[in-house]
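User:
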Amino acid sequence: MNHTLRSPASQPLVQKACLSAWLRCFIAPRLHTLSSRSSLLHALSRPRYCSHHLPTLPPLFSPLFLSTLLALPTLSTLFPLLPSFLPFLVHRPPSVLSFQEMSANSTTIAKERLQHIVNTIGAPSTDLANGLRKLSPFVSACLAFRLPFVLTQGPRFHLTLDRVKPSTSAANRSELNPVHFLARSATIYPSKIAVIHGERRYSYRELNRRAVAFAYALKDQLNIRPGDRVAIIAPNIPAMLEAHFAIPAARAIICAINTRLAPQEVDYILKHSGAKVILCDREFEGLVKDSALPKVIIDDTGLASDPYEQFVGTGFSKADSLGWSGLDQTDSEDDGVSLCYTSGTTGKPKGVLYTYRGLYLAAMGNAIEAQLSLDSVHLFIVPLFHANSWVFPYAVTAIAATHVMIRKVDYDLIWKILLTEKVTHMNGAPTIMIQVVHHPDAVKLPKPITCTVAGSAPTATLIARMKELNMDICHVYGLTETYGPITKSYRQQDWGTLSSEALAQKFARQGHVYLVSDDVRVVDSEMKDVAWNGQDVGEIVFRGNLVMKGYYNDAEATAKAFHGGWFHSGDLAVRHPDGYIAIQDRSKDIIISGGENISTLEVESCISQHPSVLEVAVVAAPSAQWGETPKGFVILKPGLSQDKIVDGPTLIAFCKERMARFKCPSSIVIVKELPKTSTGKLQKYVLREQEWKGHVKRIN
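Assistant: Predicted structure:
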C-alpha cells in the first residue's frame, strides 16, 4: 500500500511528543519491513500530496525529512532512525533550508546517529547500503529542486519521480472533472434542448437542475458519501443520463450494470463493487428483487407519481438555493468515478475503474474525433452501461449538443428518429449498423450523419451501403479498459478515389492513437516494437490518459494487465509502413491448424465479400487431422431471390478462389442469428464452446 507523508509548510509546529507518537503508531509498522520485503515510501514535498487513506497528519517538514534519506546508505532500517532525527524536524521550516544545508544535515545525522543505530540493531545491511548509495545523486537532485519521488525496495532499488500535484487552490490549475461540462453548458445555453426521449424534452437548464437535485437527494436521502458506489440498472433513458452527472457530483462512483445479465451475475457485481444503493428501472426490478440494498425504482414516465421523480424532487430546494456550491468538488482528478464491469467471457467480470481525469479527456477526445458541434444531435444506440456508452454523455454535454435516448435497439424507431429529429451522430457495432442500413425503411438521408463503429472492422459491403444512405463512417478501436475508443482509422485525402473494396481495406485498420492519449505500440514477447512492415505480428499495448486506473479490488489482474509498464490489450496486430495498426485477431481467436496460424478476421473478411452474406463469424472447430480448423457461421441477407440463396459448400468454394486452401473453412453453416452482447458485439466464445463441448483437449 502506498503511504504519503504530508508536509504543510505554513502550519504551526506541534509538540515533539505528538509527532513521535504518530510516527511510532502509524508509520513504524509500515516501514520496519523495508529490509525484509518490498515496501514503498513516498517522501513528497508538496503540501497537497496526501493519501486519502491517511488520518490528519502532524506537520512534517519534508526537505529536512528528505535530507535524512541521504544518510540511508548507512542505515539498515527506517524506524530506529525516525526518533533520532525528530529534533531536526521541529526546529526549522523548509523555506530556509538550502540544498547544501540539507546535504550537511544528512551528513550530521549520519555521523551523530550511526553509532547509536549500530549499537541498537547491528551493522547495516550491505545490500541496503549499496543500493541506496547508488541512488543518492538522484535523491540530491530531487532535494535541490524540491521534486517528490518514490523509493521502492524489492529485488532491486528503484527511485523515480512522482507526478507533481500542486495545490488545487493554485491559480494555474484545477482538477479535471467531466461534471463541470454540464454546469458550463447550462450557463451558456440554458434554453437549448439537451435531452429528447419520446415526447419529453429537457433544456440544459432543466437537465442541470435535475442532476444537481439528484446529487443532493443521494447525499441527504441515501447518505451517499465520497467514494461510495451507486449501482444503476436502466436502459438509455433520461434518468440514466442524469445519473452520469449526479453520482459523480455527489463524489460517489457510478456503477452502471448490464441489463441483460442474470440475477446471480448482477448479485456478484453488487457484492464485488460494494454498492451502497441501487437505482433500478421498473422493467429490470426482477434482477435485484433478492438484494437487501436500498432501492430507488424508476418508472421512466417523468410524472410526479414516478418514484424516481419523487426522489429527485427532494433535492430541488437545495438545487435552487445552493446549486453546485453546496456540492463537494473532487480533491483529485485521479480519484475513481466510474466502475464498468467487463463481460466476463473468460471468468468472473472485472470492474474497470475510470477516473475524473480519464473521463474528462476521453470526452474531449471523442468530441474532437467525432467532430461534434453545437448543432449535433446524438442518437444513443450503445447502452450507457457499456463503457459509459464510450463516454459520449460527457462529450455531447461538453459541446452542448443534444442527447436522444431510446430504451432499446428498435430499428423501426431508429429510422423514425433519424428522419424526424435531425440526428447527426450515432455509434454502434458493425452488426448493429448492418441491421440499420438493411432495414425496409432505410432511405438516403437528407444530410450526412457520422456513424462511429467499433467492436469489429466494417466490411466493404457495409461501407458501400452506408455511403448510399449518406452515412459517413468513422472506425474506432478500443476496450472497456481504455474508456472505449483510443485509436481511429484516420481518413487520408487520397482515399476518396478508392474503390469500395480498397476503401474497406483502409478503414478496416485500427489506425493511430487518439489526440488526447499518449502512445500505442505493437510489441513482441520481449516488449520490443515490431517492424512497420505489415507482416510482423505483435500485441497492442497502451499507456497514457485513456487507460483505466486498474481493476477494482483485483490487484493480481491489474498487475498482469500492466506488465512492463504498459496496458496489454490481448489483441494481435501488425503495423503498416504508414504506421497504421491492423488487428489480426484476438490472441484467443487465432486458429492453429496443422501448425499454421490462421486469423479468423481474415477468413471472415473473405466470406463477407460474397454478395449474399449479411453477417459472419468464424471460430476454431476440432479436427482429428489438423487439431483445429476454421468453421464459419453465416447469416444471409433478407429477401434474397432463390438464385441468390447460397449454402455452405458454395461459400467454401468462394473462399478457395480468394485465399490459401489451409485458411479456408472446413465447414460453413447458415444460421438465423449469431450470439451477441447487448451492444451487438459477436460472442465468439459461445460458438467456440459449442464446437468444443465434449472434447477433452483444446488446441486453442
